[in-house]
Fold this sequence. Notes:
single chain, about 400 residues, mainly alpha, Na+/H+ antiporter like fold, 17 helices, globular
Amino acid sequence: xxxxxxxxxxxxxxxxxxxxxxxxxxxxxxxxxxxxxxxxxxxxxxxxxxxxxxxxxxxxxxxxxxxxxxxxxxxxxxxxxxxxxxxxxxxxxxxxxxxxxxxxxxxxxxxxxxxxxxxxxxxxxxxxxxxxxxxxxxxxxxxxxxxxxxxxxxxxxxxxxxxxxxxxxxxxxxxxxxxxxxxxxxxxxxxxxxxxxxxxxxxxxxxxxxxxxxxxxxxxxxxxxxxxxxxxxxxxxxxxxxxxxxxxxxxxxxxxxxxxxxxxxxxxxxxxxxxxxxxxxxxxxxxxxxxxxxxxxxxxxxxxxxxxxxxxxxxxxxxxxxxxxxxxxxxxxxxxxxxxxxxxxxxxxxxxxxxxxxxxxxxxxxxxxxxxxxxxxxxxxxxxxxxxxxxxxx
Length: 394
């Protein structure tokens, strides 16, 4: 039995790798294929009457680790200098303004149709408003560099803002001056932690001579994020800033403290660290979406009661995105289509406190919105005529 499980997992992960390397040719996001394979495995185990233990509790663990690694992977690739600040500012506005408008608008709709408070409606709307970096970033790998950079910044910032807003709404019974003051204190604390931890981990990365050096760093990052989550601190800010720091050492070489870290040698270690992070992120992401596909129940996917809601929500997502891209004078194609919901939506949905759950937002609705948004992204990528090859030529 154990051998069969090992063989099955290895075959599934090799298949996930094949999906990943062929996605540039097929234009089909690997996440779609992973969900289909996971669902097919579930049907096969049911047909063959194979007993599989309940794996539901593993999903949030894989999702959390995957989110950390994917944001880390994306931030390590981003170039940060003064010339980029206007671009980053515009990207941040595109990430946060539509999310806020969508969340508040959908919360009003939930309040009206679900006979619930606006606060509860908002807690249930936010998970559906956040772009999933776990799907968007890997799917943008074959876009031209400018679009890829935009998607990486936008989806990472969407994750961070979404988690911060979700925690603020769900953890505070009353929204007022006191809760806002507490939030500002929490933000200051995480920035201090980020500063200390970033310099400390960078120092360790440059000084550790032991053959095993990157795994302890990654474990420390996951530990800091997890502890910050316990105290309701926005830990994704730490992940993003740490990745940006390591990925932009060349911009900081003139700093006396950075010179003590021997930036030329540290850059080589960062390159190796980035490669390892990318490979582990692929592994965790593949396992997450295979497991999520496995846990999808067919009746939830085909639920006719929620499909109208799912279509309406997706229509609102992309209509609002079209307007925001137009306002900020950004290219519509293919950016319009790359706004998938996924890993972060699932994590936030599972984190909604029991006293704030509503029947309007259930497993069926979340699954259908994720699938529909991923299919729309697939269509957008298939019809996209820009390629990375053209970008390299230019």
